[in-house]
Amino acid sequence: MTDKIKKEWLSNPWANILAGIVVSLALIPEVIAFSVIAGVDPMVGLYASFVIAITIAFTGGRPAMISAAAGAIALLVLPLVQQHGVNYLFAATLLMGVIQIILGFLKVGHLMKYIPNTVMIGFVDALAILIFHSQLQHIFGHSWETYAFTLVTIIIVTLLPRVFTRIPAPLIAVVLLTIISMMTGAEVRTVGDLGEITKSLPRFLIPDVPFNFETLMIILPYSVSMAVVGLVESLLTARIVDETLDSDSDKNTETRGQGIANILSGLFGGIGGCAMIGQSVMNLKSGGTTRLSSLSAGLFLMFLIVVMGDFLVQIPMSILAGIMVVVAFSTFEFKTFKLMKRAPKADIAVILLTIILVLITHNLAVGVVAGSILHVVLKRNPVKADAE
Description:
Blueprint: H1 2-10, H2 13-38, H3 42-59, E1 67-69, H4 71-84, H5 86-105, H6 117-135, H7 144-159, H8 169-184, H9 213-245, H10 251-267, E2 273-275, H11 277-285, H12 291-306, H13 309-312, H14 317-331, H15 335-342, H16 345-361, H17 364-380, H18 382-387
Antiparallel strand pairs: 1-2
């Protein structure tokens, strides 16, 4: 037990704390954007994110993985918020967590080993493309200073680690360039332009909805969808982190941990969440390898909101966009192009279907499920697949 605590919490603490700080800075604009998608106040997404990040640091099965309010969940709940209000969202998030805990005890995490490598390749590449595409709105169509800050950020994040690694390059870029922006009065869009940030902690609450069968029938379809989509993304992200760190994780513990985190999110006025692969990759690239990095991300996110709100709203979006562009390029599997030249047609079809469906639907779970089904169909009919 002592060795496990040392490995999962105390290994290289300075690097993990700094990595968590970098991630917390990158989380804010993403989470605010997801809140807008869900039709809720930005603070709903921010509250959810630091509750989930802190909780999963203790309850999750994959150290160094970052979980927070996620875009895939936000897309699912917009109709619920529009038709019934935000309290039904909180109730649905609670039920989502309960469903995930049940699935964890049913050991659905074991299903991850049946996801084909070709689907994983398509999943990762599609995700990298989505991350890159999501940042374009923060880069193009703005002032020349926006282009300059983006370019300088990319240069710092790419080149600085070659000569200096004690402090993560993304953190240096954010602090240094934000100060320059404030001193020069640069004409750039900032985090504050995305939505108002309230300097307050979340309060414990019971969703203000009737506790009856009718309410259950309203929220159940949303809760099931959120639970499944959230677990697919979380377990796929866990697998990617496993491969990056060359270590195994407990997928069933992660499943239950996600459920606990979402229950607490619902009880503190938050939206549902799951693992975020972009931020998880950023955490790894910044030196995060333990649970301490996840805890640091959640705690510093709370600190930024409550204590450093005035500085937070001054951070140029172009800096954060530049960081995420680097993350996107480092996430994309460029070996896919070489693989396409020599791989069987069936494998190519699975990769392309996964990528295309994810890009069309912006739903990673849809692409993964469809790609896995196609893989099974083509493997059962190899002659037909090769003939095509």
